[in-house]
Amino acid sequence: MSALRLVIVAAVALVLAAAPLLPQGLVTSSGDGGVSVHAATASSPLAGGNDNDDDDNDDNGDDGDNGDDDDNGGDDNDDGNDGDNDDNEGNDNGDNDDGDNEDGDDNDDGGDGRAPPPPPAVAAAPATVSGCVANGGSVTLDFPGGSATVTNVIAQGINVRLERAAPAAGPQGQLDAIIFNAFFENCGGGGLADPPPNVNLGIRYSVGANKGGLRIVTLQGNQFAEAGIVTVADPDPNNPFISATIPARTAAYSVVQR
Questions:
Q1: How deeply is 95 buried, as exposed, middle or buried, from its count of CB atoms within 10 A (0-12, 13-18, 19+)?
Q2: pLDDT of 235-252, one tens digit each?
């Protein structure tokens, strides 16, 4: 046994002598005279020189696997980007182009060269007007070139009806188309007492005329005359209006330029 111990001691001495040449290990002796070899703890990447270069190279080699991961990540990203972009381009852009832009085209159609619709037609003035008017009341009949108004100036209420007549039947020198028939009766029906009361006839014109030369005339027999009618021109030169007092008797009336 003593020879064996000597061999072990000699081996330990040789190991201890060679320990400086083993930078990557730590050698210790066990309590029972045995030898244990422990792997050295890895140092920080910044602690060494050549050893770290080797480790870095190894790590870089391992990082090649990460390159595979990059490839995979790249593929995934490409797939994700391609998918998202395709979806966006296919769905969103397509929807915008097909829907909104076409609606815009519809708006353009509204601005084409078509003329706007005409304004609503103005209702034509009635050819006949009538009413039962008390003192101060009036009835007005409109013409293209003016109007005729009969005003009741007596206490008794009377029914007044005015009707347009054919302009061709008017007198020579007639002012525009101012020609009409006037009818008078009691509001309850029946003719007025004879002689009839007087009423006021006013004529407003909207055509060019010499107001001083205008005359209100009535049909007497088979011609228009101003006998018994006194025409009064409004003194205001800016007011195109003339008037006369007439009997409330059925007759045709017109205006002529003298």
A1: exposed
A2: 999 999 999 999 999 999
